[in-house]
Design brief:
about 500 residues, alpha/beta, 4-stranded antiparallel sheet, 18 helices, about 30% helix
């Protein structure tokens, strides 16, 4: 037995931001092949029904690393990072002697509190290297001025229309975030592969700003781009929750030339291909250094993106599968099953408890996630839960009317913090049904996913569905009781900095 095999396995968790499950051929994309993710799936377990606990960046990320729902840890808005004193995976790995590292997008940990927990910290955001948390442990391998230059287009994008901006540019590939992160991880593994390590590789793509190198854009031929199914009269009347209709008013693309929408979809999926090549580089380096046999590799996303589904782009506080269904693959050849597609319902909060179990680490009792079926001895679950909001006042039509037009990206940003805090809605999803309820008001949603996989028809009031609504609402209530809510969190305007 080698020295590496005698110690607990390393962890490399690779996350992509705003990467919807069906952006990959593994989850149904008809035109976007992801060969590196295919390799991980061939060498591990792919979870067909993995869901985010909160379709918003910070709450989802804090939930993953803490193993708790956002209602319990309290980081229910993008402005509230990992709470002080919160026990999370990296604190535990650090205590156990692992070299802890973040390379990529943070949007989770508060550097003032958690930077000491990390031995290596190389942070990059959507628009370049931030100044608030200098690199720690190792410098970036590319000159920071070159990285800054490669992100100018993301900081200064020209809008193609009122709804979105996107760009195709020509810079050295390793100066874009996806290339930079992959190259930095290669160097990290060369430096620290002899130590036990836990590494978060966090790609900012394919989250907006939507920009991609030309050579990746050219890899997605325009004639292959498939438009998602559409429903012409969706959101046309009051059968739909007001939150859904207001979001469509802001980020809907039915008034945008189809050529612009198709090009946006092309750019988004080209960004996915760039991330996939980054995954390939990381796994190849693990192979080269002889680390693969003692390293668990996980791939996931924090949440998804509409990218044309429901006639919208981006995201915004609703629970359609485009935003909540995420890819999840766990790979450790020879130690976990290989080439398995698990169909049970799982959640991102299950990831850390699973890693701890297969590493032989005791899982803290306060973690609400459970071991992933197939990999652990856990029984398959038949439903998952997600939530959104911080019990703030609802955002109404009259509030939207007070914002200056034209509606689009600007309006989305102007209302962002209000909408992120509004209400306290929650989703319960089985393989065949989805139910959404907000005790603060607005219309409930019920989707028969077997008959209506695109979620075009809200059948909450349909004759014959009352017993299903009652059952799913009871499940939501039971979940709320088992996931205790932290004291009210600060709302926009409550004196936050």
């Amino acid at each position: 037995m080698t020295r590496q095999e005698q110690r607990p396995p390393n962890v490399v968790l690779i996350m992509a931001d705003q990467y919807k499950a069906n952006a990959s051929h593994l989850y149904g994309s008809p035109f976007c092949e992801t060969p590196a993710l295919q390799r991980l799936a061939d060498e591990g377990v792919l979870y067909e029904n993995a869901f985010t606990p909160h379709p918003l960046c910070v709450p989802a990320r804090v939930s993953l690393w803490s193993g708790q729902y956002s209602r319990t840890h309290g980081a229910r808005r993008n402005q509230i990072l990992m709470p002080a004193g919160q026990r999370h995976a990296f604190r535990i790995w650090k205590e156990l002697g692992f070299h802890t590292a973040l390379i990529g997008k943070n949007h989770c940990f508060d550097p003032a509190l958690d930077l000491p927990v990390f031995d290596t910290w190389n942070e990059i955001s959507h628009v370049g290297i931030p100044g608030r948390a200098p690199s720690k442990g190792m410098p970036w391998f590319r000159p920071e001025e070159a990285v800054h230059a490669a992100h100018v287009a993301r900081r200064q994008q020209d809008y193609r229309n009122a709804k979105f901006a996107c760009a195709v540019t020509d810079h050295p590939l390793d100066d874009y975030s996806s290339g930079l992160i992959a190259g930095q991880v290669e160097r990290f593994l060369e430096r620290h592969g002899d130590e036990p390590f836990a590494l978060w590789v966090s790609f900012p793509d394919p989250h907006e700003p939507w920009e991609v190198p030309r050579q990746y854009y050219d890899r997605v031929p325009p004639e292959t781009v498939a438009m998602p199914p559409q429903c012409e009269d969706e959101f046309a009347d009051a059968r739909w929750p007001e939150r859904n209709r207001l979001l469509f008013d802001m980020i809907g693309v039915k008034d945008v030339p189809e050529a612009d929408v198709r090009d946006l979809i092309r750019i988004y999926h080209a960004m996915v291909r760039f991330v996939d090549d980054g995954i390939a580089r990381i796994v190849a380096k693990l192979d080269e250094l002889g680390l693969r046999e003692n390293t668990i590799v996980v791939f996931c996303a924090d949440h998804g993106d509409f990218m044309g589904e429901h006639g919208m782009q981006c995201k915004g506080g609703v629970f359609y599968d485009a935003l909540t269904h995420v890819p999840l693959v766990v790979s450790w050849p020879g130690r976990v099953p290989q080439a398995v597609r698990d169909t049970s319902m799982v959640n991102l909060i299950d990831v850390v408890p699973t890693l701890f179990e297969i590493q032989g680490i005791a899982c803290p009792e306060e973690m609400q996630g459970a071991g992933l079926p197939t990999i652990t001895g856990a029984s398959p679950r038949d439903c998952v839960f997600a939530e959104y909001g911080a019990s703030g006042p609802l955002f109404r039509r009259e509030d939207l009317e007070q914002l200056p037009g034209p509606r689009g990206r600007k309006t989305l940003i102007q209302s962002l913090q209000w909408r992120e805090a509004a209400g306290a809605r929650a989703m319960v999803r089985t393989r065949e049904w989805k139910y959404v309820h907000d005790p603060h008001g607005d219309i409930d949603e019920l989707y028969d996913l077997k008959a209506d996989p695109c979620e075009f028809d809200n059948v909450v009031d349909a004759p014959g569905n009352s017993s299903m609504v009652a059952d799913l609402r009871a499940r939501l209530q039971a979940w709320r009781e088992t996931a205790p809510e932290k004291a009210p969190v600060p709302l926009p305007g409550d004196g936050e900095s």
